[in-house]
Design a protein that fits this description.
Shape: globular
Helix content: 25-40%
Largest sheet: 5 strands, parallel
Strand order of the largest sheet: 1-2-3-4-5
Structural class: alpha/beta
Length: about 160
């Protein structure tokens, strides 16, 4: 792919990278049909090669996504590799597993911020996410970031349900 992009002189400015399809939710609107990981997900060496290639191509910004990117244990290594090469990195997370450890990993890896998905009030959010306490947990993740001076963002998937 790198050779083809060199021939066409195409330079990606930004991208969204689904690190895994593994997810701890079963959202009604999921376009990726996330849940279980792909059987052929990239190894850590392959992930880092892709990160290097994206940086070499001149990509300026990458959003780590999924599934739930926090469920891919190597996400901090990928984020750190990209940031060390001058690529701005952020993440979109459902926030369910985002706690102090993940906040420190995000900070240490050089990530700019984490965007959390919030789809309505508690009742609507939990229904859309098909997960009890999803709203409570994502709000705790946002509050943690605010309390620790790390910039959170919020994404909303707008449907007839919300």
């Amino acid at each position: 792919m790198l050779e083809m992009m060199k021939r066409t002189k195409f330079r990606p400015y930004s991208g969204v990278w689904e690190l895994t399809l593994r997810c701890n939710m079963n959202c009604l609107h999921c376009g990726s049909r996330a849940g279980k990981p792909r059987g052929d997900e990239l190894t850590i060496d392959e992930l880092l090669t892709v990160a290097d290639d994206l940086a070499r191509l001149g990509c300026k910004m990458i959003t780590l996504s999924g599934g739930e990117p926090l469920m891919r244990k190597e996400w901090p290594l990928v984020a750190a590799r990209l940031s060390s090469k001058g690529v701005a990195v952020n993440m979109i997370s459902n926030g369910f597993s985002f706690r102090e450890r993940e906040l420190e990993q995000a900070r240490k890896s050089g990530m700019n911020n984490v965007a959390f998905s919030i789809d309505g009030d508690q009742k609507i959010h939990d229904k859309i996410r098909n997960k009890r306490n999803a709203y409570k947990r994502v709000m705790e993740a946002v509050d943690l970031c605010v309390d620790k001076g790390y910039p959170p963002a919020v994404n909303t998937h707008i449907t007839n349900a919300n």
